[in-house]
Design brief:
13 strands; Rossmann fold; 4-stranded parallel β-sheet; alpha/beta; 3 domains
Length: about 375
Amino acid sequence: MKYIDAFRDGATGRGLAARIAAEVNPARSYRLMEFCGGHTHAIFRYGVQDLLPANVIMVHGPGCPVCVLPVGRLDMAIELARRPEVILCSYGDMLRIPGSRKRSLLRARAEGADVRMISSTMDALALAEAHPDRQVVFLAIGFETTTPPTAAALRVARARGIGNFSILCNHVLTPAAISNILQAPALRDIDAVQIDGFLGPAHVSVVIGSQPYEYFAEEFARPVVISGFEPLDVMQSILMLVRQINDGRAEVENQYQRAVSRHGNATAKALVADVFELRRSFEWRGLGTVPYSALKLRAAYADFDAEQRFAIAYRPTPENRACACPRILRGAARPTDCVLFGKQCTPQTPLGSCMVSDEGACAAYYKYGRHRAEVTS
């Protein structure tokens, strides 16, 4: 832990909090969106929000890939899992996400579907090799961080001739989501969300680098600070955003220099570009249909596309009207604004994706007691 402890030092944290308090302008607010669910959990796990002045407001963004998957895409996975020839596999969070009529992959498994939890894409390949008489479908999901492992698995599958392996691709793109958030109030009749600056995601930026964010700073005049996950990373990044806003600057700054470069991981990006190409559009929970915001397999890998192999198509499916997940994901509401939060919807009985995922804002609020703090305050 010696390499981590320095980023969790209490005295340094209190010093940063004092610096932020001294530099904020009391006559204005600072609405800062942390895009990544990992940052949301760090903010509440370490009490960062409680150290900030009241006019520094953290807005939770859609940076949880499990949370932004629309109901209709999950229904596609459940439909596949119910086929007798299919073994459907994915990461643990995905198995609990409720689809339409409160169905989930776990429920499908209880009803006889062959659904497996895996921890890596290579686990999915191993399943396919171990069961040559079955069709193994990997429910692929995630931002730019998890896309390279999927691409690597597809390369291996093609090289080894593993013909009973395919993926249901739900890989989505961070820059497109940020653009949508900034453009949405002007383009669509949804809640206008004021954002003064962004905490850029850490792991995603390790892959794509800091360069893609330069567009937002220039086009929308919003500062971006790429932040590490530790509490002092987050607090230093908030201070950097406050200073940019005070100075009237809109630049991309990289607080997480120990891991993020301007151009990112060239090898990972080349691997993804070889296997995937842009989808024309993709529906996100909370953001609606976002153009060029997701990936699909290139023609050279089309044989591994489960949508084509099994002739299934996406059908938009209405959300649970009482669930506030869509508004929470675009920063228009907090978990405690939802009438279900902490009552009908808990980690034991989740009704929305934001409560299921380890990176969801509702899960963070509940796990670290924000529902109790805000009810009693």
